[in-house]
Amino acid sequence: MINLPGARPVLNPADFTGLENAIKDAPRPRKRLTELMIKTALEQPGVKPTEAQAAAPREWGLKFQRSPQEVLPTADGRRARGIRLALTRLEGSGDSAKAIPTGDVEEVECGLVLSSIGYRILPLDPAVPFDTQRGVIPNSSGRVEGVPGLYCSGWVKRGPTGVIITTMNDSFDTAHSVLEDLQGGVLDVSTSREGFGAVESILRSRGVRPVSFSDWEKIDAAEVARGKAAGKPREKIVDPQEMLRLIGH
Predict the structure, then answer these.
(1) Quick check: 146 and 139 in contact, CB under 8 A?
(2) Helix (H, G, I), strand (E, B), or coil: what is residue 105?
(3) If we measure between CA atoms, which residue out of 129, 155, 124, 158 comes closest to residue 141?
(4) Does the keyword Signal feature in the UniProt annotation (predicted)?
């Protein structure tokens, strides 16, 4: 986004001053991303932006320590005209830090509001440990604590944070743990497991018909065909029942 054509980043230097030492031991992807933002935010004031940046018709920025309170409607109540944000301060440190409202608010004018706040994980099974405070399964590099041979990945591993590449790297980390345990003899591979066959029989006994990869390919093809007719890459089907009808469920 920093190099996005036709746009320039506007980052508050105060948000990034003094962060170099704080990210020394951060995971590599987070460290690299933060270093890039620090470099962008702390560029010397005397340095002139490039011609392309100066002429950019759009600009974007990041606002930290804000909590959405209310979407503000237009007078007719049909559209968004802004959003009210509560200013917060951090109490605690590391993963235990919490954002506490300061009592101050600010309003940001906007015509479009996108919700992207993730969701809270729920316990899976009484036999699987669960941290209700953080909403995650306690683990070390994906190894579920106290349950040898059980692994986790994604938001249930780290909480609702990050983007697709974050989840990919997170999965690689868990897969590396599985391989380590296989090579170290931690996992019992002397007996074969049924794998999906066992899961499938349970689903069928409950009257559940799973969606297969070939089923997904039919939905994908239908979405692409509808999108082509409308002059775009894809027309997303948002009704689950329509998806199931497409694949003959």
Answers:
(1) no
(2) strand
(3) 158
(4) no
